């Protein structure tokens, strides 16, 4: 007992050193297991596509091993092909759009100010100078921040040799981890039944059978929520991005690819996504081609209504099944913890928690009151 008190006292005295050691240990552990984390995430994300291809080929290929390996190979060809297409076509186009937008921003702001001044100058009961003062306060910080972007980029890329070397090393290290993750994901997918079976064996060995059965059942339910949400939202947002691209081409607006990518990506975020993507899209058109801004705003509004009322429910169904208020809460908390990724994953996480919480509440209520309607219960006397 005395020895434990002495150790505890020493630990408290050197608390900062202990915390630093723990953080360093966790960082090193994270570096070691990074390829396995990447591998698990890749395997989890592409597994539905592997299963789909496997079902299509099972009548052609009899050997299960060859069928599985062929399905994984085709999946990787499709996924890597899409990534290559994005890297080869979309990213250069997006970078060109961003560069053109930044370079033309000062003259676009100036032109917009003149047009607004001319418009309000024709209205007798509105002082155009007052309007311009308000607009200048809005656009001035935006224009300054945009003007500083090239300087910030220049400073970032023209750093010291040490910075460049460390940055290159970090990129190379992450690239190697991703490659290892792809290899690990291949083996996870190829032998997923064996891995799952052995994991079950470990759990059954240390816990009671009833507990394990319930645990596995609940894990499958959570997996269904995440899988359906991620796959459904990806398909939904891809369709919205493509429809946005087609619509903007019909409207003949500038920066079509940039706006379509913004709308498609932000649509991955439930509830807030349409607003997050729609505002900058309209703002970009307003600065570059003001006459089209209203039409773009109307088009994006119609597109998002189509997604919310028809396309989204058709693809996602009742995957989430939580009230919009709780969706907002989950997005806010998730965003505060993990940023954009947390905003995306916060919804299925909260949906899973809500599922178990509601079932626990229903169970407790049934044990206490049976089938009695909650509205029939007498309120407590105050």
Radius of gyration: 28 Å
Strand content: under 5%
What are the low-pLDDT stretches, counting only 5+ consecutive residues below 50? 156-165
> Percent of residues in helical segments?
over 70%
Report the count of strand segments: 0
Which class do the helix and strand fractions yield?
Answer: mainly alpha
Write down the overall geometry.
Answer: globular
Q: Average pLDDT across residues?
A: 76
**What is the ordering of alpha helices and beta strands?**
HHHHHHHHHHHH
Give the CA-CA distance, first to last residue: 52 Å
Number of helices: 12
Q: Sheet bearing the most strands, described?
A: none
Please, could you describe this protein's structure?
- There is one protein chain.
- By secondary structure, the chain is mainly α.
- 86% of the residues lie in helices and 0% in strands.
- The protein is built from twelve helices and no strands.
- The chain has helices spanning 2-13, 15-57, 64-121, 128-157, 161-190, 192-206, 209-251, 256-266, 273-288, 290-316, 324-338, 340-369.
- Helix 3 (64-121) packs across helix 9.
- It is globular.
- The model is unreliable at 156-165 (pLDDT under 50).
Quick recap of the structure?
The protein has twelve helices and no strands.
Overview features:
about 375 residues, mainly alpha
């Amino acid at each position: 007992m005395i020895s434990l008190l002495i150790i505890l006292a020493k630990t408290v005295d050197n608390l900062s050193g202990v915390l630093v050691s723990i953080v360093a240990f966790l960082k090193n552990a994270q570096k070691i297991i990074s390829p396995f984390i990447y591998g698990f995430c890749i395997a989890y994300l592409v597994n539905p596509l592997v299963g789909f291809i496997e079902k299509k080929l099972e009548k052609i290929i009899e050997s299960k091993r060859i069928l599985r390996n062929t399905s994984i190979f085709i999946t990787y060809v499709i996924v890597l092909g899409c990534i290559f297409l994005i890297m080869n076509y979309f990213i250069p186009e997006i970078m060109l759009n961003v560069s053109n937008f930044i370079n033309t921003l000062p003259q676009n702001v100036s032109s917009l100010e003149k047009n607004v001044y001319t418009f309000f100058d024709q209205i007798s009961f509105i002082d155009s100078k007052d309007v311009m003062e308000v607009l200048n306060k809005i656009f001035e910080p935006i224009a300054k921040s945009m003007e500083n972007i090239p300087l910030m980029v220049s400073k970032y890329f023209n750093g010291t040799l040490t910075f460049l070397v460390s940055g290159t090393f970090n990129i190379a290290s992450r690239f190697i981890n991703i490659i290892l993750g792809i290899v690990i994901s291949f083996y996870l997918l190829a032998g997923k039944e064996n891995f799952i079976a052995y994991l079950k064996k470990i759990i059954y060995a240390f816990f009671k059978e009833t507990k394990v059965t319930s645990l596995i059942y609940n894990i499958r339910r959570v997996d269904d929520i995440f899988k359906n949400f991620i796959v459904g939202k990806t398909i939904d947002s891809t369709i919205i991005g493509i429809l946005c691209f087609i619509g903007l081409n019909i409207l003949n607006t500038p920066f079509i690819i940039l706006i379509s990518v913004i709308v498609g990506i932000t649509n991955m975020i439930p509830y807030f996504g349409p607003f997050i993507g729609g505002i900058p899209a309209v703002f970009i058109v307003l600065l570059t081609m003001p006459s089209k801004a209203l039409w773009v705003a109307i088009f994006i509004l119609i597109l998002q209504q189509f997604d919310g009322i028809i396309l989204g429910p058709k693809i996602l169904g009742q995957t989430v099944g939580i009230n919009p208020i709780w969706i907002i809460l989950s997005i806010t908390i998730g965003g505060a913890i993990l940023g954009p990724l947390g905003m995306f994953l916060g919804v299925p996480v909260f949906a899973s928690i809500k599922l178990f919480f509601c079932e626990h509440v229903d169970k407790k209520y049934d044990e206490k009151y049976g089938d009695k309607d909650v509205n029939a219960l007498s309120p407590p006397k105050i």
